[in-house]
Amino acid sequence: MVSSRKLTIAIIAGEASGDILGAGLIRSLRKRYPNARFVGIGGDEMIAEGFHSLVPIERLSVMGLVEVLGRIRELFSIRARLLDYFFTTPPDVVIGIDSPDFTLAIERRCREAGIPSVHYVSPSVWAWRQKRIFKIAKSVDLMLTLFPFEARFYEEHQVPVAFVGHPLADRIPMEPDTGSARESLGLEPDKPVLAVLPGSRGGEVERLGTLFLEASRWLQARRPDIQLVIPCVNRDRERQVQALVESLDVKLSVTLVRGRSREVMAASDVVLLASGTATLEAMLLKKPMVVGYRLSNFSYKLLSRLVKVPWVALPNLLAQKPLVPELLQDDATPESLGAAVLERLENEQERADLKQAFSDLHQSLKQNADERAAMAISELLERQG
């Protein structure tokens, strides 16, 4: 269906991942509404699609409690400016992409003013602070989720929802090219590769870096042929990891790569990583993995009481069973992590079974997310008239 309606579609993306989602969504919506105007907050990807950003996206890209508190007045000012703009020249729909602490409040105010609102990428309300669902229900006319288990949660609470699939599942091929990735990274083609991902933030690397390096050293002592590769998100993380490597008592043979984390995982036989989106990428690349994580004892005890799901790794949540080992807090030791990696490195039958399970999960998420999201929003717009 192609409509000649001259719509104004407001989109608010708060960080780089949201900018990528927003760009894909704009492309798919423009097929349906070629005369539409797109406005709000977005980055270079969205702007390249003809989007008009009222505020640079960098002004919303704030991480960490201290950083947020230091910018709280500016964030409130940006929110007020957006709302004033939307109330003065009402768009036909407001779409918040992720960044729920910022976008949901805007969506609620717009909905109260009679402007339909959509939220794209569910907060982890199904996992913890589940009472947030009541606030979300008052804020959105439609929730777009990346995972099917999220959609089921909203359906149970009578919140309009559409499962659209995950854009990464659309972009990552069903069969990774391990050989090409190894050649590109200058790795030996016939020796096993362990990808080590202790996180992208300084605090994560500080907490997990030495632990993962000691696990790698334990493993390398038993498998001297293994190639260790650590992708670092930027120069600061590269320097941080290099300092941790140099601080070890025993020399560790390891290759550091700036960026290219997906390519490093594609080149690997097994991945040792922190929980988070990287577990989804490793799954889509069909790689056996071991998940390790540590928090402060206080944070861990607090979260243990709040979290309502039995697993933290996305492959386990998607499968609703423990496909990959999760070694958390006191269970995360160099020996336990190393042994879990070694088992996945040497058990060929488990690797084959896991590849099939990951392929099935990949297929379930490969839904052409941009198009499905645009279709759901289009249906909302047509109902609204």
UniProtKB/TrEMBL annotation:
This protein's pathway = Bacterial outer membrane biogenesis; LPS lipid A biosynthesis
Listed GO biological process terms? lipid A biosynthetic process
Report if keyword Transferase is assigned: yes
Please write the reaction equations for the catalytic activity of this protein. a lipid X + a UDP-2-N,3-O-bis[(3R)-3-hydroxyacyl]-alpha-D-glucosamine = a lipid A disaccharide + UDP + H(+)
Tell me the InterPro entries matching this sequence: Glyco_trans_19
Q: What does this protein do?
A: Condensation of UDP-2,3-diacylglucosamine and 2,3-diacylglucosamine-1-phosphate to form lipid A disaccharide, a precursor of lipid A, a phosphorylated glycolipid that anchors the lipopolysaccharide to the outer membrane of the cell.
Q: Which PANTHER family match?
A: LIPID-A-DISACCHARIDE SYNTHASE (PTHR30372), LIPID-A-DISACCHARIDE SYNTHASE, MITOCHONDRIAL-RELATED (PTHR30372:SF4)
Which named protein is this? Lipid-A-disaccharide synthase
- Organism (species): Marinobacter nauticus
Q: Which gene encodes it?
A: lpxB
